[in-house]
Each structure stands twice: as structure tokens, then as C-alpha cells.
Amino acid sequence: MGGNSDQAELERQFQQRIDDDIKIEPKDWMPDAYRENLIRQISQHAHSEVIGMQPEGNYITRAPSLRRKLILLSKVQDEAGHGLYLYSASETLGISRLELIEALQSGAAKYASIFNYPTQTWGDVGAIGWLVDGAAICNQVSLQRTSYGPYARGMIRICKEESFHQRQGYEIMLALARGSDEQRQMAQDSLNRFYWPALMMFGPHDGESAHSAQSMRWKIKRETNDALRQKFIDQTVPQIEFLGLDHPDRDISWNESRGHYDHGEIDWHEFYSVINGNGHCNRQRLQHHIRAHQEGEWVRDALAAYQEKQRQRDCQDPD
Ligand code: 3HC
After folding, report:
1. Closest C-alpha among 99, 158, 95, 168 to residue 131
2. Which terminus of the chain faces fewer neighbouring Cβ atoms within 10 Å, N or C?
């Protein structure tokens, strides 16, 4: 009986720490399921940051001005750094970088479905910054209060950079919306193509979410998928109005009694089709990642050789 009661006591103490908003740190005891859930969510978050570099990276050589090229370069580099923070947070849970990369490249792990949509115009770069990073901010500001210490601290750092990402995207949209008729049409077209996939970033409805209930009990999540999605919808309506563009959701309307906007339904068939590998760019994104990873093998080998040389030198001359 000792084993079961010891386990039950450990779980009780763990949940008490969660309920008391005491951060869980890498060396603390935690249920295997908590650890696995975190590895799943944090590593997929990291994969999203790194794969998310591809759609915008396509426009670094096509930016309309040197200033725009510099801003986009800076943003794409930020995303790489966000990925590294999050891979490092995942590794504190006892999984290696190699295992994480293999899970991504084999298709076993997910990344945000939005990055499987192609960037067809410069307006898309604006819509991604404004809507995708805007949606990510809604989600990541909430995650600053997540119960796992390394994840929460990584979020605080990431959120500081995300607001710049969102602002630069909205500035692109503003320039287009106030430009020629063709530029306005480009902005409207990008809004139409990226608005609904941005709403999908918040995941399925709470009732269909496989992980939300448990993630809320463990305070991995502090707000539900639908609550965060509603926050994003509400903030985006005046932004679209300020741009003078048409809202892609014909059912959007203010509901005074709810204090929120009522809205149309997401195409969940499209959502599950894309996250199951059938989006426009799923194969291309993974092939690009695999190729880049292979081309970077010499860097990893050189680092490993240097570290081994350092280790041998430290062994010979420990002082
Ligand atoms: N794209 C791909 N998969 C998605 C998804 C999406 N938009 N929404 C949900 N899913 C997956 C989940 O991963 C889960 O699959 P799994 O069991 O294989 O992991 C399944 O659909 C069911 O969804 P749940 O709601 O049950 O899953 P979660 O509780 O994990 O909620 C989430 C999904 C809201 C995305 C949550 O994981 C989360 O908050 N993650 C952290 C934030 C994040 O990853 N954002 C991605 C974008 S990062 C970004 O945009 C960076 C910016 O700088 C550009």
C-alpha cells in the first residue's frame, strides 16, 4: 500500500503547489502526465516559432525597401531565438534536442497550422505580423502565468519582442490600406486569407479540446482556447475598421449583453485537414527544415569537437 499512498501524497502536494501559484521548477517532483503534456506543448510551440520563420523568410529578398528588409530580418531572427528559448525549456523536462527535432521532422509533432499557408504577396507579410503575432500575443501573454517556471520565464522574454512584431505588421497593412487601389486590394486579400487561419491558432473549441481541461487544472493554460480567441476577435474588429477594410466574417456583430463580438464559425474541416498534413505547404515546410538541418550538421559537429577539446584540456589542466 505504501507505494500508492506515497504517490497519492506526492500528487496532492504537487496540486497544492499549483493551487497556491507556486511555480514548478525542473528539479521538483511532477506527475509524468504533467511532464509529458509540457514537453508536447512547449516543443510544439518551439517548432511553430522555427517553422514560422519560413513564410516570412521568403520575403527578406523581396522587401519593398531597405528599412522593410531590416525590420523583417530582425523579426525572423527573433523567431529563431524564441524557438531556442522554448527548446531549452523543453530540455529541462528531460528530453534531448535531437529527439525534439526528430519528432518535428518525422511529422510526429505538430506546429501551428497557420504556417502551412503560403505567403503570396507583401500584404501577407503584414497580415502575418499583425494577425499571427497578434494572436500569438493573446496566447503568450496568458502563458506568462503558466505553472512551469522555465516556460513562464521564456514567455516573459518572448512577449517583449512580439509587440514589435505585431506593430510592424500592422504598419505594413496601414501603408497598403492608405496606398493605391491595388495596394488596398492587396491588404484586403491578405486579411481575407489570413484572418480565419489566425483564429485557428487558438485550437479547437473548449468542448473539443483534448488537453484544455487538464491543462487548466494544472495551470499550464490560464485561459481557455475560446476565451483567448474571443479576446483576439474583439481587439481585431476596431483594427480592421481603422484600416478601412472589410471584415472577413460576415456574422461579426457587437453583442451588448455579452460585452463581446458574436462571430461566424471556423471551418473545422480545413483546420483538421491542415493539422493532419494536407495544407498547402506542409510538405514544403518540413522538407525545407530537413534540408537546412542537414546543411547545418557541420556546425554542430564543429561545436561538439570544440567542446570535447575543451573538456580534454580542462581534464589535463583542471585549475
Ligand atoms: N495548429 C496545429 N495544431 C494545433 C492547433 C494549431 N493551430 N491548435 C491545436 N492544435 C493541436 C494540439 O497540439 C493538439 O494536438 P496534440 O495532442 O497532437 O498536441 C490538438 O490540436 C488538440 O488541441 P488542444 O486544444 O487539445 O491542444 P492544446 O491544449 O495544446 O491547445 C494551443 C493548443 C492553444 C496551440 C496550445 O498548445 C498553446 O497554447 N500552445 C502554445 C502557443 C503556441 O504554440 N502557439 C503557436 C504559434 S507560435 C507563433 O505564432 C510565434 C509567433 O512569433 C509567430
Report:
1. 168
2. C
